[in-house]
UniProtKB/TrEMBL annotation:
GO cellular component, one term: cytoplasm
Organism of this sequence: Globodera rostochiensis
GO annotation terms (biological process): defense response to virus; innate immune response
Transmembrane stretches, start-end: none
RLR CTR domain: residues covered: 922-1057
UniProt name for this protein: RNA helicase
Length: 1109
């Protein structure tokens, strides 16, 4: 007894319920429990219990008390053998473990039964004692909250289907898992042998036996995993088993629901662990002997041969795979003519016309031609988003594998020895443009590639090659290379693919539209535009554009729900005005004027969102902490109310109320300091009053709707009159009607519904499956799904690439009939089988209109816009006009002779070069004016940050300090959520080692960590012969652009700068380097892609910032 008491006390001290731990040993209890013990335990521990007389339904559908039910099972063993005895022991053991928690004798006696395994199965006995070096991770399978669920691990073992995670655990290459998996699989496989050629009652016992065996296999797995890594003798890191188990569960939809039950924050927890493991694996004991920097002037002039890097291909299988054959259609043959004649061209063809097959043929022809001519060739396909990397890679493998090596790179791969050699091993690589930019600029030999390594570059969705997009940055970098090569430029063919060239930022000027297209051609060095001209009839046979409809819908008159929210928003806005006016009058923020603090009317949602979004961005730079928190938190509440109104516009008010409730719960959990508690309390007080009003309104409307439903059920012959008028909201009624008509006409239809936000996508998909009367074909059928972006974690409403793939596959094979999507489905994501497009009060540019319409690829397809706002309706009609103008422009350009068009593109290229040269001359003149000016940049406390001649610019927008000594004068504060920007990653706050002043951010660029300097973090002290400078108060509101114009020159960062900063950090603070790497990995995991691009107003060119959800 003392032994058991000590054992139980040890487990309890570690937060582990001894009863639940013991319940994991069902297999041993069943094996070692005698017949006498069974009857003793049944009478002693089960019969006296209050629940024992509770009736259960037995096999012959006769209800009987639990205690008798156990006895009946035991008697059946005389007829059906030992199988029934095992099942009945299983029942008894589970009942005792679950319901005798406060009975020490029961636990003690059951322990001694299980402990009989000591001699026969020493491993099971080790698991029973559970002697671990840390119980931290095993404890996570139990609920240690006194008010929590004491049966947490019992539920996990009951729900877990271990057969779905065995394969993933085997992939871990961890020998520690093999014996455990063999034991667990033996129990599970035994359950597969039951049930052949038996009576119905025997089969019922078989089902019980199966359930017992699966449960036993789950138990063996759960109790055995901790001993694989968390014992004192293990060489592995504690907790590895836990995260491997979590990852294994995440690979299958049948086990994934367990994860939030085990750990509500499982996604972020996994991200942090992966980042930690990757950093640990990448660490080298002596970096000086392992890190190889790129050698200056060692750039190749010809592509390096993929065959020399064959060992770096990710598989060891022989490449004897026979690819699928394909046959180009006549119109596709017309599209490839220029590209296969080695010309740079832009291929413009409708969505659904098979541009991927066209690209496949261009790539194969390019590689085959090079092989015949004895040249080395390598192709790269650039895609704008991460989901497209996987999708396009699979397409190319289907048609090229076996002859050519294809691989994809999205930025989330973990290659400890770099990715350069894996890229060089490819005949074709698919990647996002930012990956290629990073590799072209890396100082590390393991990451560096060159333009000369590629002979064909294909830009998917090439209309993005404009302004600040990575496509344009790549082409600009190539142009710079040409200017420094003295005529020895790399021979690279460039092909663009798009469904729409767009019309640019123009009105209705055909000449301006044509100039835009010529600019796009010049940016991509295209000599011509390839479209279908001679095979239009053949194109129409395969690609039939859906018929476009626009239906105007109205908002409900006198919407009490929305009016109550607007009134609350007005109160918050009034409370902000005093502080905002003071900020403007005292000029605390130079870029905020009186016009900026006037809140627009909420009826103009686009203007309101833009104005308040910009105001939030500006106020983040306010110095006074209390005022800043008050204003920013007030804007956050305005944002939530604003989004509640937009949800109310499109969905039943319940969803808006639920959205607000969840948002406000987050604020209720905040533990601010005393200064901010009152701010939080006042805002929540307003919400509390509002929520009572909103609940009353919502209940009243729900009751009215139920009355309409009853009327519809009673009505005969004219039920449709009621069916589509239950909602007050016309937009919902029309949506129901459209879906009903479509699926009544064609039950196998597929519909895509485009919405603006992730929140709306999730809620609308849920709502469509809750309408028993209006949409019976979806009611509780799980045939409506949603697909949103992968650049947010699941907790932020995002989806993983796997989840997106499951949605696409379900939609394609008909399991999902309706898919509610955001813009993720616009560009290139292949969702065929669609014959209805609904744009749910959501419209974009003319390009987006063409791409969305192209998702409907079946004949007799429809594209319908439900326009709630006049602006939305007008924008759609405007897009249609722009599309027609674009097509006329393309036709006009193609009617010209090829030489004439080439000449116009060359003239446009020269014109753009002249403009660029003039800008360079202006910059050079300005730099001459500032030549010789030098400053010390100092912190407010007097600590030197660096000299002005050690400041460098990255991509002209990021300004960093390139003085290796600065690492000694500063320190860092890790950010909770590192973020991934266009071409760098924010890893930590950079602060003064002396006073803690915020100097800027630690960023990762080109695989190296650099300190980015905030323009308002320093004062300047003049070093050259003239005296001057200015103090901190004059710095407020200035930008780096102003300093470059008026104070000192900033050079672009060089390879030497990057190399010196890399070495400086590792020499000064290697532990900091490790922490930054961990942060960087976490950002890679959390944000698979972020190709954010600034949008500008057309009139005043001011930045457009949307209110975040």
């Amino acid at each position: 007894m003392n032994e058991v008491a000590k054992w139980r006390e040890l487990l309890l001290s570690q937060g582990i319920q001894a009863e639940s731990h013991l319940a994991l040993f069902t297999a041993e209890a069943v094996r070692y429990m005698t017949e006498e013990e069974f009857h003793k335990f049944r009478l002693k521990y089960i019969a006296p219990m209050p629940f024992a007389e509770r009736c259960l339904e037995s096999w012959d559908n006769v209800e009987q008390p639990i205690s008798d039910w156990l006895a009946e099972g035991w008697k059946s063993a005389g007829i059906y053998g030992e199988q029934c005895r095992r099942v009945t022991k299983f029942r008894l053991f589970k009942l005792i473990c679950m319901h005798c928690r406060d009975h020490p004798d029961a636990i003690s006696e059951m322990f001694h039964v299980v402990a009989r395994c000591k001699d026969d199965d020493p491993q099971a006995f080790r698991e029973l004692l559970m002697d671990l070096k840390t119980y931290e991770f095993y404890r996570r399978l139990f609920d240690t909250n006194p008010k929590g669920n004491p049966l947490k691990i019992d539920m996990i073992s009951k729900i877990l289907e271990p057969q779905y995670i065995y394969p993933e655990l085997r992939k871990r290459n961890a020998n520690e898992y093999v014996p455990l998996l063999v034991r667990a699989e033996a129990l599970y496989k035994r359950s597969l042998k039951h049930g052949n050629g038996k009576t119905e009652e025997q089969r019922d016992w078989d089902l019980e036996q199966n359930e017992m065996d699966v449960d036993a296999a789950s138990c063996v797995l759960l109790r055995g995993l901790p001993l694989c890594t968390d014992t004192k003798s293990s060489s592995r890191e504690a907790g590895d088993w836990y995260y491997h188990f979590m990852e294994a569960c995440d690979t299958d939809p049948r086990t994934r629901p367990l994860l939030p039950y085990i750990d509500p924050d499982w996604e972020n927890d996994l991200i942090r662990w992966r980042a930690h493991k990757e950093v640990e694996a990448a660490r080298v004991p002596n970096w000086e002997h392992n890190i190889k920097f790129v050698i200056a002037n060692a750039e190749p002039t010809e592509p390096r041969d993929p065959q020399k890097y064959a060992e770096f291909r990710k598989t060891e299988e022989d490449m004897d795979f026979e690819p699928d054959e394909y046959q180009l259609r006549p119109y596709q043959n017309e599209l490839i003519v220029h590209a296969n004649n080695k010309k740079n061209t832009i291929i413009c063809a409708p969505t659904g016309s098979g541009k991927t097959i066209v690209a496949t043929d261009i790539i194969r022809t390019h590689l085959e031609t090079a092989k015949r001519e004895g040249r080395v060739a390598r192709c790269v396909m650039l895609v704008p988003t991460v989901p497209l990397v996987d999708q396009q890679c699979c397409e190319f493998v289907q048609y090229l594998a076996g002859h050519y090596w294809v691989d994809g790179f999205s930025g989330c791969e973990n290659f400890h020895d770099g990715r350069a050699k894996r890229v060089l091993a490819c005949d074709l690589c698919v990647m996002t443009p930012q990956i290629l930019i990073n590799m072209l600029n890396s100082v590390l030999e393991t990451e560096r590639v060159y333009f000369a390594d590629f002979t064909l570059v294909i830009f998917d969705e090439c209309h993005h090659c404009d302004k600040g997009h990575p496509y344009k940055m790549l082409m600009d970098q190539l142009a710079e290379l040409d200017n420094t090569k003295n005529g020895k430029r790399p021979h690279i063919q460039i092909v663009g693919l798009t469904a729409s060239l767009g019309v640019g930022d123009t009105s209705w000027d055909m000449a301006a539209c044509q100039r835009h297209m010529l600019s796009l051609c010049a940016n991509l060095r295209a000599e011509t535009i390839s479209t279908v001209r001679h095979q239009l009839e053949n194109l129409k046979e395969y690609v039939t554009p859906p018929v476009d409809h626009v239906e105007k819908v109205s908002r409900p008159v006198n919407n009490e729900f929305v009016e109550a929210i607007k009134l609350c928003m007005s109160d918050i806005q009034r409370s902000m005005q005093v502080e905002l006016l003071r900020i403007v009058e005292q000029k605390q923020l130079a870029y905020i004027g009186k016009d900026d603090i006037v809140f627009p009317n909420l009826d103009d949602q686009a203007q309101y969102q833009n104005r308040v979004g910009l105001l939030k961005k500006y106020l983040q730079h306010l110095e006074e902490p209390v005022t800043r928190v008050f204003l920013l938190r007030s804007i956050n509440h305005l944002s939530h109310y604003f989004h509640a109104i937009t949800i109310s516009d499109l969905l039943p008010n319940f969803f808006a109320l639920d959205y607000l409730h969840k948002k406000m719960l987050d604020y209720a959990k905040l533990s601010d300091n005393d200064q901010f508690n009152q701010i939080n309390a006042n805002l929540l007080k307003r919400y509390k009053v509002l929520s009572l009003q909103l609940r009353d309104i919502e209940r009243s409307e729900s009751g009215e709707k139920e009355q309409k439903k009853r009327a519809a059920l009673l009505c005969t012959g004219s039920s449709n009159k009621y069916l589509f008028n239950m909602e007050k909201k016309e937009i919902l009624n029309k949506l129901y009607r459209i879906l009903n008509e479509q699926f009544a006409k064609d039950p196998d239809s597929r519909a895509l519904i485009f919405v603006a936000t992730r929140a709306c996508a999730q809620r609308l998909a849920k709502h469509l499956m809750e309408l028993d009367l209006e949409l019976p074909m979806f009611y509780q059928q799980n045939n409506v799904g949603y697909m949103v972006s992968s650049n947010q974690s699941g907790t932020m409403g995002g989806q993983s690439s796997d989840e997106q793939r499951w949605m696409r596959e379900g939609f394609s094979n008909g399991i999902i009939k309706v898919l509610v999507v955001t813009s993720v489905a616009e560009e290139g994501v292949n969702i065929a089988a669609c014959n209805l497009i609904i744009k749910y009060n959501n419209v974009g540019s003319e390009r987006q209109m063409i791409q969305r319409r192209g998702r409907a690829r079946h004949k007799n397809s429809k594209s319908i816009l439900l326009a709630l706002d006049t602006g939305v309706e007008q924008q759609e009609f405007s897009n249609m006009r722009k599309e027609a103008m674009m097509m006329r422009c393309i036709e006009d350009m193609q009617e010209q002779e090829e030489q004439t068009l080439r000449k116009k593109i060359e003239e446009k290229t020269k014109e753009m070069n002249v403009i660029r040269d003039e800008e360079k001359k202006k910059l050079e003149y300005k730099r001459e004016q500032l030549m010789g000016k030098r400053f010390n940049l100092k912190c407010a406390c007097g600590t030197l940050i660096c000299c002005s001649d050690r400041v460098r610019s990255v991509m002209t927008t990021l300004f960093v300090c390139c003085d290796p000594e600065v690492w000694k004068r500063s320190k860092h504060a890790l950010t909770r959520l590192p973020t991934k920007e266009k071409f760098y990653t924010n890893c930590a706050r950079w602060v003064c080692a002396n006073c803690g002043e915020h100097w800027g951010q630690i960023v990762k660029y080109s695989n190296v960590f650099l300190p980015e300097i905030r323009v308002r973090a320093f004062v300047m002290e003049r070093l050259d012969q003239q005296r001057g400078g200015f103090d901190r108060s004059e710095q407020v509101g200035k930008k780096w652009k102003d300093i470059e114009q008026n104070n000192f020159n900033v050079d672009a960062i060089s390879m030497a700068d990057i190399r010196s900063m890399y070495k400086g950090l590792l020499e000064t603070n290697p532990e900091a380097h490790k922490e930054y790497e961990k942060q960087s990995r976490q950002a890679d995991q959390q944000v698979a892609e972020k190709l954010a691009e600034k949008e500008w107003r057309h009139k005043d060119r001011r930045e457009r910032v949307l209110l975040e959800e």
